[in-house]
Amino acid sequence: MERIYLDHASSSPIDSRVLEYSKPYLADVGNPSSLYEFGQDAKNAIETARKKIAEFINAESEKTIIFTGSATESNNIAIRGVAQRNIKDGKKLLSSAIEHISVINPMKHLQKNGWIFETIPVDKYGVVNIDILNKKISNDTILTSVMYANNEIGTIEPIKQISEIIHKKGKYLHVDATASAGKIPIDVQAEEIDLLTISSNDLYGPKGAGALYIKPGVKIQSVNPGGGQERGLRSGTENVFSIVGMGEAAKIAKKEMKNESKRLQRIRDSLISEIYKIDEAYLTGHPTNRLPHHASFRFSHIEGESILLNMDMYGIQIATGSACSSKTLEPSHVLLAIGLKHEEAHGSMVMTLGHTNKLSQVPKIVKATKETVKRLRQLSPLIK
Amino acid sequence: MPVYSKKVMDHFTKPRNVGVIENPDGYGKVGNPVCGDLMEMYIKVEDDIIKDIKFKTFGCGSAIATSSMVTELAIGKNIDEALKITRNDVANELDGLPPQKMHCSNLAADALHAAIEDYKKKKKK
User: Fold this and answer.
1) Across residues A263-281, what is the average pLDDT?
2) Does the beta-carbon distance from B63 to A331 stay under 8 Å?
3) Which CATH architecture has domain A4-11+257-379?
4) In what order do the strands lie in the sheet with B26-32?
5) Residues of chain A neighbouring B13 (CB-CB closer than 8 A)
6) Domain assignment present for B33
7) Of B111, B115, B109, B114, nearest to B90 (Cα)?
């Protein structure tokens, strides 16, 4: 059976060119902190990767980039490091209501320790409510975190507009670009972003690396003291293989993003128009202003984990925001934030396209979806 | 995502006794769509023996598999014997359920018991 993988937002397989490029650093590599030549080779490879990341997001220089172990770690360093360093200017933190838990949880952790944390609601498409942001932001708001685009519903946020509002009154804007990096262009200077998170895994790079952009002049302190690697902000021996791979993945993404996103968007649009025809199928997220590889839905009267298992029988891997597939057994906070009722949020299906997907796969995906929905509805007592 | 046993997947992909019984002798409904699981159980009883049983379930993989399994365990049994079928029995017959599913998606025995209680109540009248 042909496998059709549609869960690239959860993990993108490593690009074979990236693997080829970074492979030598997996087996045979010195410690970048060691002064002998062997160690310095590793250091140079990391610095080359740093340049590639800086170019990828149009950063002022490679000095603005630190490497971490994951997007989660980047988010933690950004949020906790800025909050602790800027406490004299205020204790107020904001984020959108649909941030990834690796943003929400560090914020809540700070809240327990005396900071003030509030979320900004979103509209039914998942777009941050600008009026409420305007009202909530004050001179003591030291950090606001808004994602570039949402991983569960694909909606792209108006980052430039948000950044203008924040910089009028508040201090710093942190943007989690994990879901959007490599799919749509990011320009940290033009969009006036102070801190930006990206991950290797979502760029077809190896797992185990992330990056954090820190605009020159942003005040931040270390949250995990140690040997002082990565400007003292991320102590610990660097994962050279993953960092080198991430740099190469970013370079490839920068070059190929435009054409690849156009290609994926055609597949996505075809999927959306066909699946939308199913009775009581609804698109989640913004109908037009969404990531080019992202198609997300909800179906009435059925449950997401069952959808996932049933699609897997056809060799098709999708994701769901259903409670039953999460560790907490709570439905996705993103789906609740866009106004879905619990029973509606249970029936979600998320498809994120990538390199291996082709337009010719659409009929098979659509057929499997139709049959899955039909079968589960036949089992459902909610349809009389 | 929990990892399910082969038996769970078998009952999920080919659930037994799906449907409804018109004018059932007993009917039970447990769960709530808000929580993500809802089960309906219908039984036909002759001489206190469960002659036919059907279910409909909204829920995750284990909710569907446990519903299917409980119908297999109950059919042909005396109602008092069927009342003794526990949540654990259902999980064991399926070669186990992931720990987080033991509580929330293992309502099938409850649905069966509710249907039997309904039958007993009707019989008294």
Assistant:
1) 97
2) no
3) Alpha-Beta Complex (3.90)
4) B26-32, B37-46, B49-58
5) 313
6) yes
7) B109
Residues of chain A with CATH 3.90.1150.10: 4-11+257-379
* Range with lowest mean pLDDT among A316-330, A336-350, A351-365: A316-330
Predicted local confidence at residue A327, as pLDDT: 62
Domain limits, CATH 3.40.640.10, in chain A: 16-252
Residue B1 forms part of a structural domain: no
What was the pLDDT predicted at A329?
66
CATH of domain A16-252: 3.40.640.10
The distance of B26 to chain A (nearest Cα, Å) reads 16
Task: Please state, in angstroms and as integers, the Cα–Cα distance from residue A115 to each residue in A80, A138, A165, A317, following that order.
Answer: 11, 14, 22, 40
| Average per-residue pLDDT for chain A | 95
CA distance A86 to A141: 10
Q: Please answer yes or no on whether A324 and B104 come within 8 Å at the CB atom.
A: yes
Supply the ipTM of this predicted assembly: 0.93
**What distance in Å separates the CA atoms of residue A327 and residue A281, rounded to the nearest whole number?**
26
A326 compared with A269, residue with greater pLDDT = A269
Q: Can B104 be counted among the known catalytic residues?
A: yes
Which residue from A303, A308, A309 is facing B36, i.e. has the nearest CB?
A303
Say what percent of chain A tops pLDDT 90: 89
For residue B20, the distance in angstroms to the closest alpha carbon of chain A comes to 9
Phi, psi of B101 (to 5 degrees): -95, -10
**From the centroid of its chain, how far is CA A278?**
29
Instruction: Give the residue numbers spanning the domain of B115.
Output: 6-119
Residue B124 in domain: no
pLDDT at B30: 95
Q: Which two tokens stand for residue A378?
A: 């036949």
B40 is a domain residue: yes
